[in-house]
Amino acid sequence: GTPQKYDPTFKGPIYDRGCTDIVCCVLLVIAIVGYVVVGVVAWTHGDPRKVIYPTDSRGQFCGQQGTPNEYRCPGSAGLRVGLDDLKRSFPTTTIPRASSPAQICVSKCPDRYLTYLSAYGSRELDYYRQFCVPEFHNPQKVAAVVCRAEFLFSCPVARRCFPAIRAKKGVIMVGNETTYDDGRGRRRNVTELLEGAKKANVVLETRQLAMKIFEDYTVSWYWIIIGLVIAMVASLIFIVLLRFLAGIMVWVMIVMVILVLGYGIFHCYMEYAKLKGEAGSDVSLADLGFQTDLRVYLHLRQTWLAFMIILCVVEVVIILLLVFLRKRILIAIALIKEASRAVGHIMMSLLFPLCTFFLLCLCIAYWASTAVFLSTSNEAVYKVFNESACQFSGQTCKPETFNTSNVTKLCPDAQCLFAFYGGETAYHKYLIVLQFFNVFMFFWLANFVIALGQVTLAGAFASYYWAFKKPDDMPAFPLYSAFGRALRYHTGSLAFGSLILAIVQVIRVVLEYLDHRLKAADNKFAKFLLSCLKCCFWCLEKFIKFLNRNAYIMIAIYGTNFCTSARNAFFLLMRNIIRVAVLDKVTDFLFFLGKLLIVGSVGILAFFFFTHRIKLVQDTAPPLNYYWVPILTVIVGSYLIAHGFFSVYGMCVDTLFLCFLEDLERNDGSAEKPYFMSPDLKKLLKKTNKGQPDA
């Protein structure tokens, strides 16, 4: 690309700018309107109670007011009866092709063992009726019977009836029985029900665990908040200290890397020398071939020689890079210090991630609620079933009006029975498309919110860099001004960049779904191709995020459209590729070190406090069921807080770096074209503003 030329009118972020990428802005507005419509339709048809409350196999709620099963709770989850079982019981009866419910709402759990065959024709039939759907009237008419083939002595667990399995002197029993009739004339051992009982026990234990965790939060929430405040203060202190200790921290890191590699070389040499003369140690790697037990290679001298050569090459390369890139490392350190000054002058930037976090929470909440409502939009579908030929057979019907319809007149033996749980309207047929659109819009809006935050911070920090006299020449409210410019002029550009990233992310989601479906397949070529595609799109997503980030900085400064900004940013970075690589690695290390230090320190402090190991506050710490609950909460919260602070700091470093590169290309230090960089950077680069004092 062509380097930037001097522009006498350029004094930082351009205020006289126009709207960019208007078409993408219109598309975003239309998509949001469509997203709202999808949400309204989903909220109209969906019912999230289906996720919370138990239902029978027809989708009817159990024990909820205003429902047919108001006074019934979910039935037994034991062995399930199928149509084949009913046919064996009544071979002369025609069984409808409708699916028999395996989950039935009951008023109470069964207190005895009983099968349909043993109850039929006996006094137990009336008791058995309690565990059938209300339509069960005529036991001879099996086509209308929706009952379980058998049920066991059960007890209620999490609003469901599970077999009451107990152990007596090492013998597994249900009630007082060790065996049961499976409804097919065969006796089966109770131990076959253990797997289902284990799952029921998991449900019960999970519920108890959730209650104990909730109790821990109620007694420790204020201490958790104190821990998060400590993490926030520590993050702020670390950012301030970077202004003074960045150079020391970077050079200590470099020295530690060199020392670690040196020790590695020494250790490899000692192992190489120790194996001299031992039997089998002189076998070459080529003669040994591939071995599944990797420890075999550690007994070969050639292995340690190869390790030693590799480490020596890495050591030499790092030392040479330090010799030739020492000036660029110093520039990176100076930029990091300058970023601390910029954040100090725009302290509100540290609170701005809260706005981004709030908007992201709204996106997540809308996406999750819409997904729940869409997934619970299914309805009970009833079909016409009959024992003789009928032209209406298989057609959809409504039980409420079926008896008064023409179907019963033309086909007297026809019945309107439950077929499946779904829906046959256009809305239900395209539910999967709506779910896909929901996921796509979530990615698009989430990326848009992140882009808005990046452009706002970039505009604010760019106004700091391009102020000749810092901070006197800075605008009064740089963050507010940058936010207003981003929304007013560049909504379309932000929508364009976030749209590209959202498309790639959706493709990655589809690839992950295909990979999950192909796990059971034995097509190695398809798995290999899918792995290659996943790797390529992962790299593409990382590249687009990098390009978008720098494009947003150029948008904040110059007000150009997305494509122009991305091109200019890319060529500017490519003209300074070595500086980019050095700065990226140095800042990555410092941010990693900062997060590790803050999260580790606060986590250790929380551990000693909540485990009553600090004598001064030993009696202050609350009693807990699980001390790891508040500790993990503090650790995760501390990481999120530290990440929020360092994301601002990272955006500041990237913005100042691009401005620094632009400054070097635009200006030469003369009276007409003075440098805007800080005195430390000018001193490091041996640059001066001729005829003007440094700011």
TrEMBL record:
Keyword Phosphoprotein (UniProt): yes
Keyword Membrane annotated: yes
Catalytic activity: ethanolamine(out) + n H(+)(in) = ethanolamine(in) + n H(+)(out); choline(out) + n H(+)(in) = choline(in) + n H(+)(out)
Top-level taxonomic group: Eukaryota
Cited Pfam families: Choline_transpo
Transmembrane segments: 21-43, 221-241, 248-266, 304-325, 346-368, 441-468, 489-511, 551-574, 586-610, 626-646
Its membrane topology: Multi-pass membrane protein
Places the protein is found: Cell membrane; Mitochondrion outer membrane
Xref: InterPro entries: Choline_transptr-like
GO CC aspect terms: mitochondrial outer membrane; plasma membrane
Reported function: Choline transporter.
Family statement: Belongs to the CTL (choline transporter-like) family.
Protein name in the entry: Choline transporter-like protein
Organism: Halcyon senegalensis
Classification of source organism: Eukaryota, Metazoa, Chordata, Craniata, Vertebrata
